[in-house]
Amino acid sequence: MSTADGQGPVAASLQSMTGFARASAAAEGGVLSWELRSVNGRSLDMRVRTPQGYEALDPQARAMIQKRLARGNIQASLSLQSDARTVATPIVNEAFLIDLAGLAQRLEQKYGLAPARADGLLALRGVLEMPDGSAVSSTAEQEEISRIAMSTLAEALSQLIEARQREGAALRTVLEAQLARIEDLTLAAENDPSRSLEAVKARLAQQVALLLEESGTRLDSDKLHAEAALLATRADIREELDRLKAHVANARDLLASGGPIGRKLDFLAQEFNREANTLCSKSNAGSITAIGLDLKAVVDQFREQLQNLE
Known about the structure:
Elements: E1 19-27, E2 30-39, E3 44-49, H1 57-68, E4 72-82, E5 91-92, H2 94-111, H3 118-122, E6 128-129, H4 139-190, H5 197-212, H6 221-234, H7 238-257, H8 262-282, H9 286-306
Parallel strand pairs: 3-4
Antiparallel strand pairs: 1-2, 2-4, 5-6
Cofactor: a divalent metal cation
Family: Belongs to the YicC/YloC family.
Protein name: YicC family protein
């Protein structure tokens, strides 16, 4: 990795899957705007909304989003707003209106219905339309607006990525702190006095002494040592501790590499949890069990935060 000032490696950026962006641009007769919203998602799921007449922009917008984002539920909405100074002229579909009027007259004669009124016919969908600025007068104008729309989408995407990166930087700090806590707990378990053979032997001697207290039978020290060694072997957590250390190192490498690493870290979180469970099941002392439970709690928090990471 490159360095910014010679002080050490610079970690690549991370992205959260949460963000919002809005970009606008002037177009013929008004203003067009893209609004992007991003939330958590297992994969990349896109919903694109465009005004009537601009459905052809949908696949282009999807392709651009897919090229720049890897995960998240993305909602992209394009709106076109006409200039307030533009006078909107109603558009009447006269052929449709004539057909409806004829149908109304036939129904009146056949069933004795009340005659149709002009305001009622004009209120029917498809008869009267008020331009909202989304309609264009020529193919050339539509192509120009489409070009501006895609350029504005690219700007909005850049803003969204910046917002997700800001969230990702904050998320990195949280994840690094949680990894440090996992490492501290691993070292605490490694250095816990209860893991020593002498400690296991002392606990065993105490337990056996309670059983033999009334019999007065002498405890065979050699046999006690052998039993203590067997118990210590069964309760040995060396492999679990080594794997926890390796997982912490791998997680830190992934955080430093940046990019869409959420799924990889989630897999490591599952491995963390597996080792924590084994630690508790093998525990031969309350102190190790307490460390294992603390470890499970931190791993759960770590995995919860990962759900926000791309």
